[in-house]
Amino acid sequence: MATPTTRTFETRIDLPENAREQLVDLLNERLADSFDLYSQLKQAHWNVKGSDFIQLHALYDDVAESVLEFVDEIAERATALGGLALGTARMAAAASTLEEYPADAVAGKETVEVIADRLAAFGAAVRAGIDSADELGDQDTADLFTEVSRAIDKHLWFVEAHVQS
Q1: How far apart are CA 1 and CA 90, in angstroms?
Q2: φ, ψ for residue 49 (rounded to 5)?
Q3: pLDDT per residue over 21-74, tens digit each?
Q4: Which of 7, 12, 61, 111 could pair with 2 in a Cys bridge, judged by C-beta atoms 3.0 to 4.6 Å apart?
Q5: Is the pLDDT at 6 greater than 70, yes or no?
Q6: CB 135: neighbour CB atoms within 10 A?
Q7: CA distance 49 to 15
Q8: Does the pLDDT of residue 1 top 50, yes or no?
Q9: Residue pLDDT, tens place only, 107-122
Q10: Each residue of 86-115: b (16+ CB within 10 Å) or e?
Q11: Where are the domains positioned within the chain?
């Protein structure tokens, strides 16, 4: 019997079952990261302090809203391929590759550095996913990851602009 991460259900999608299993695993890895990224953005949003409070508070909320949409799209792609989306908060926390958000990071510049690091790490993982999905013959998942990558790079630009001169 397959493990919950590789279990697939019958589908008429014309990708081989082995490829679909690998794609579902890949999607669940990014699902965990995206849900974790969302929660870290909310942590920064709720707790940021300093002279840039209102700008960063609003920015983190906007980025979190965008990331939450990707959480849903990634999960739905995993299920469309016949897999299980492993998306509870506990599942995401256990599987995320992102570093934990430091609870004491509240100063505006410090939150910018932490969030920029998380966005960059997530963006790199998503870009690697584009190549993996392409190698597995799934242009649709590669396209989804390309969309996510493009948005994350834009968000990273907006966040990094707060510390660039």
Answers
A1: 24
A2: -135, 160
A3: 999 999 999 999 999 999 999 999 999 999 999 999 999 999 999 999 999 999
A4: 7
A5: no
A6: 11
A7: 49
A8: no
A9: 999 999 999 999 999 9
A10: bbeeebbeebbebeebeeebeebebbbbbb
A11: 17-160
Q: What is the residue whose two structure tokens read 């392409």?
A: 134
Q: To which residue do tokens 């510049």 refer?
A: 109
Please state the pTM of the whole predicted model.
0.94
CA distance 123 to 110: 20
Distances (CA, A) of 67 to 36, 62, 145: 10, 9, 12
d(CA 147, CA 40): 21
In the block, residue with structure tokens 């019997």: 1
Closest CA to 28 of 64, 4, 55: 4
Strand partners, 107: 49
Q: Calculate helix-pair angle for 53-80, 17-47, nearest 10 degrees.
A: 160
